[in-house]
Fold these 2 entries.
Entry 1:
Amino acid sequence: MTDSETTETVLDIRGLTKSFGSNVVLDGVSLKVGKAQTVCLLGPSGSGKSTLLRCVNWLEKPDQGSVYLSGRRIGVREGGHMAMSNAELARERARIGMVFQHFNLWPHLSVIQNIVEAPIHVQRRAKDEVMAEAEILLDRVGLAAKKDDFPSRLSGGQKQRVGIARALAMKPELLLFDEPTSALDPELVGEVVAVMKKLAEGGSTMLVVTHEMSFARETADEVILMDGGRIVETGAPGAFFKNPKTERARQFLQRYVS
Amino acid sequence: MSHGFEIVWEHSDRLVAGLVNTVVLSLLGAVLALMFGCVVAMMLMASNRVLALATQGVVDLMRCVPFLMLVYLVYYGLPQFGIDFDNWTAGLAALVLYNTAYMAEILRGIWKNLPRETIEAATAFGFQGRRLYTRIIFPQVFLAAGPMVGNQLIQIIKDTAFLTIIAVPELTQAASGIQAQYFVPFAAFIVAIFIYWALCALVEAGTFAVERLAEVRR
């Protein structure tokens, strides 16, 4: 973080590498996400976007490099090379909200229970307070009427909006979205994108892996194109979509933006 | 009526006393076996390969022992090592020991087939250790386990009948006592069978209720 930057850095990824066997998935990726910024990660499938996201909260353990959240290193104890214990790692993970491609709601819990589960049992916050907040969150994602339903009774778009409310209930410093609309029927994408736009405008700090180009174009502060485990191009969405600097980006846009 | 049903009826207090023991032994046995089964299932699912394999070995061994043999071992064998139970406790111990292996195997099978994603989501939200098990994994396992655990409970109820050989005063023992004393074997045994059937029907009803709960929760 330098003085010249106007916003404080929430997420700082430095030189991340990750291989599965001989397959190099991340090849030295560095990026920053500033407070209240929305950064979209674009790229063909297999380019390492999702793995990068999963390395942020150490669902995948990176081989090299480091991840800092608001200046605190994730996964490694302060000062040293000692890995964090599971309990320490869990505490850091609770600072980050995550929204999954396949929603991954807890099927044994009702909608409202899904939302309050981690705030009550991980963050150990007072139940009354958390419940009241959850009702407000459900209202914000337009699902107040569904609070006692179980996930199996919801449509994909509704599930994903619950997934977003569940992440927000943690009051996370950072929100990770892993292809949040890719598993949805086309007609359900809009309702989820609308909620995400509201969040971005409301000052949430978001790192979003997406194939939803309109979302990236209209909402992102910065778009990052990845390919083959590396960042190919970074830029403001206006410039990126109109005048991509690299040949790779031009090819990508031709294929994905009709 | 001359098949002896009136005699059995006269001594229904003995059948009721036996039934109470059968019910208490079955329920206590099932609950304890399920509790220990959770612990053993965690050992079976442990990332430590040695622990998982060793546990699997013990579980497999236990499942291969005829229950009657285990009852003999606990009641007659263990006192040789200074471990002395009364009949009732020995019976319960054998029930729990035997069925823990089955319960653990049932729970492990369901656990293995849980969608990994819901557990991963819990990890991402900061669940780990005990809370991951009690809040996320076991509730899902239990819901899905309903029919199989119900089935095992029926097995346990029937296993309690074996305990008559170490003179546990359960239902079979009571029926057997009545028929021997008054020589009314048909009436005594058919009444006992009917009671066992009624117990199993109750278990079936309970299983059905759990299944209905589980239906919307998956």
Entry 2:
Amino acid sequence: MNPELFENLRLELRRGVLTVAVLTQLRHEHYGYALRKALAERGMAIDENTLYPLLRRLESQGLLVSQWREEDKRNKRFYRLSIDGGQMLGQLLDEWRDINDSLNRITGRALPPNRDTQEGEPCNSSTRT
Amino acid sequence: MQLLDTYLKAVARFLPAAERDDIVRELSENLRSQIDDREAQINRPLTDTEVKALLDRLGSPLEVAGRYQQNTRVLAFGRVLVGPVLFPFYTKVLGFNLGITAAVIVIIGTALRRPAASLAQGLLIHLFIQFAIVTLIFSLVEMGLGGRPGTSDLQRPAAPVAPPRGRDKLRVSRLESLSQIVALGILLAWLPALRDFARSAFAGAGLAPAPIWRVVYVTLAGLWCAGIAQASVNLFRPGWAGFRSVARLAMDLVWMGMVVITLSAGRWVGALDPGAPSAVAQAATVEGINRGLFIGLVVTSIVSVIMIFFDARRLIRAT
């Protein structure tokens, strides 16, 4: 297997999911670094250079609202989901569930129960055609 | 936290002015929280080396600022020729080279009162050549990066490095060094064409440039070679930020010397054949050009002094 190709495909797959993860986590208020930690603790580690600009972008799209507030003697910018963001998240989660169900159905037919067995190979090649 | 402040100032330089303060304030708080968190874990303050490692992992200030650009622009012709990471450098180099080319051609053409059509033709040819070469070089670099931003050595955040020594507190972006090499390399290659253009333009107007322009030509070539050498060193040794500051100051001083020597020549243009009857009719044109050049050189020398001041201040602050 080509590890570089896998890494590219993995990043591509994660890219769309990150926004859903961030919006979901921001149903509760967080500031940038705390949000990054919270996501990492739940298995969704995000690079600072991706997360912090993403928060600003989502806010400019009206999906998040932010407020500067003091915490631990330090001014921090806290983000949370806006009303529009909440509606958008609902739609995205519905879409995610549909995609997930579809993928489960597709992979359930295409892949054998044990992925390590040799029988998996013909299935993979047939999906490419 | 001086290291962090210096880093944030460097990031700020590349951010859009409207959002600069807000982004820097937020980024600063997030990074300080991260540092606090780490210090609480290890139960002691982070050393400069550890803070530097954290900032190195984050990436060069230019890369960090680039992530905040809302509109990621690319140059595409069928396929993407210059991707979003290289695009800001591409426009910077293109602007620099086209600006210098246009200024020089227009000044020479206008001073010699060349017909508008001829001036426009000369200008377009020179601008097109510069545009094509800059675009070709950046397309090749983009191909070299494999179209996978973030994976090339030029874009990857640097690995943790040795503790900061002396004035080498910040790293010089490799993309910045590469852009400098491309911009100056093209100008250097273009210099003989400029000389030929100027010669033919002067000869066409019955005028001859003074011998001092040879000194200017050689000094300019030397300065651009030095700029390429400095950028090449920083391409392979990005930690030598102090070296860049010293080299830039030295180049500023040489540039200033060149301007002063040129200014002291007194006359920069004369008639091609001073004994010819047409030389009398040209006297007013020659005087006008010399007066214009005198004013231009005085302004250049004032700008040079300001440049020296800022570069010297930057060097002092870095030490």
